Every structure is written in C-alpha cells, then in structure tokens.
C-alpha cells in the first residue's frame, strides 16, 4: 500500500471529477500550490506522503495541504472527487495531511460542489463551501496515520508487510530475510517510527481492514485475511484504535457507498 513520493510532479490544476479508477490504479506522486480535499464517492482511496499513509473509504475525506507531495492508489472501482480549497479555508485546516469523518451534510455539500463543478466564486459555491468548512471544523479526524520509514533497512521490512499484512513472521525472521538484526530493527522502529514492530503491524492491518470492511467483507473473513488468530482479537484491536466495532464501521461504510 505504500508508494514512493520521489520525483514528484507539480500539478497546476485538477478536474473536480476524475475518471473512475480501476482497482489498484495508481496516481503518481505530485503536489499543488493550493490545498485539496479528496473524496471517494465509491471505492476507497489510499493516500501516501513522506510522513505516512492514510486510508479513505467512502465515508472519509482526505485533506492535503498546499505543497505536500502525495501519491494514491485505488481499492475497488473508485470514483474520486477532488476539490481545490481557497487559501482562506486552507489556513484554517491542519498543516499536515488529515482524514475527516464525513457527515451526511458534509458529503452532500461536497458532492454538490464537485459534481456540478460549482465555482467557489459564485454565490451558490460560496454557500456550499461555507457548509463544507463548517462541517470539516466539527468533524472528527481519523487517527489512523501509518508512519512510513526513511531508513532503507526498516523500509525493506515494511515493504514485505505492505505486500502481505497477514505475514506472521517475527521481527527476527524478517530481519534474516532482509539482512538486519532483530535488535537493530527494534531500535529503528522505536527511533524512526516512534512505535514498536507489533504496534506498526497492527496499525497496518487495521488500515487494510478499513478497506476490506468498506467493501462489505464480513468481520470474520477480514480477521482471517489479515492474520488475526481469531475474530475476537481483531474486534478488540479494531475497537481500541478506531473507536467503534468493525461490525458498526462496516455497516456505516456500506451505507455510505449506497
């Protein structure tokens, strides 16, 4: 799920409505001189920056501040709506990329503005943008940013886990596969990512679970696909990090797609 952000391209403009993206489609690393909101009206979008990875199913909106390099990957057929954000509103949003939980009102105002390519300078556009801003200010932020490593030894390990989140190998086993000692890798996880190996892998699996559940996969199948020993341990880990049970999250996400 991680993608590199090297050799980023400066994009000067975006259409509010992108062509639907096929499953697994990539948007290359790029940046803008304006802030941008990104919403998947269907499917799910994963956004990667130098500092981490964010998952955005159909009930979440991603915020990318000006000049932040970002790349993306789609999960499922994804209908992406992007919205350039005026400087006045950008200044009131977080300085780092973030993901907001989309209320029904935020979602409808966003779709109305992006779907009709409404100008922010028009009276209706200003009203819609005011609603979007007000709803963003009160919307809870998704806390599940997955930090990405800068050290190549650590990246060799996290790349293996991105490719197969269900991989049950210990840190020592992963170290043997990538040519580093368990002690070195443990130190790098703590120093570079400010978390343990176990915490990072759990967070990766929870991020991937958001995608699985948003596509309608059952809680039990999601737990098994992503390497949990049993559904109970998955439900506990998911609830601790997301703040709601996977069953409730799945119901909300599936309803948002419909």
Automatic annotation (TrEMBL):
Residue ranges annotated for the HTH araC/xylS-type domain, each copy included: 155-252
Keyword Transcription: yes
UniProt keyword terms in alphabetical order: DNA-binding, Transcription, Transcription regulation
CDD domains: cupin_NimR-like_N, HTH_XRE
InterPro entries membership: AraC-bd, Cro/C1-type_HTH, Homeodomain-like_sf, HTH_AraC, RmlC-like_jellyroll, RmlC_Cupin_sf
Protein name: Helix-turn-helix transcriptional regulator
UniProt organism field: Streptomyces hyderabadensis
């Amino acid at each position: 799920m991680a993608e590199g952000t090297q050799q980023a391209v400066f994009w000067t403009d975006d259409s509010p409505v992108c062509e639907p993206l096929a499953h697994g489609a990539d948007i290359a690393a790029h940046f803008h001189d304006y802030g941008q909101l990104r919403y998947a009206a269907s499917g799910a979008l994963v956004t990667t920056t130098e500092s981490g990875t964010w998952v955005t199913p159909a009930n979440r909106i991603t915020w990318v501040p000006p000049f932040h390099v970002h790349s993306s990957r789609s999960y499922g057929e994804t209908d992406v709506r992007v919205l350039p954000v005026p400087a006045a509103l950008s200044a009131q949003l977080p300085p780092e990329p973030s993901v907001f939980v989309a209320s029904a009102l935020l979602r409808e105002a966003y779709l109305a503005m992006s779907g009709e390519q409404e100008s922010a300078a028009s009276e209706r556009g200003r009203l819609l943008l005011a609603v979007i801003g007000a709803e963003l200010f009160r919307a809870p932020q998704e806390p599940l940013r997955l930090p990405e490593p800068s050290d190549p030894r650590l990246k060799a390990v996290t790349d293996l886990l991105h490719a197969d989140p269900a991989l049950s190998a210990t840190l020592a086993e992963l170290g043997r596969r990538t040519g580093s000692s368990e002690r070195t890798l443990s130190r790098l996880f703590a120093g570079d990512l400010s978390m343990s190996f176990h915490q990072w892998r759990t967070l990766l699996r929870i991020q991937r679970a958001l995608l699985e559940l948003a596509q309608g996969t059952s809680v039990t199948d999601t737990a098994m696909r992503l390497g949990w020993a049993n559904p109970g341990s998955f439900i506990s880990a998911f609830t601790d990090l997301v703040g709601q049970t996977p069953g409730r999250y799945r119901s909300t996400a599936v309803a948002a797609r419909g």
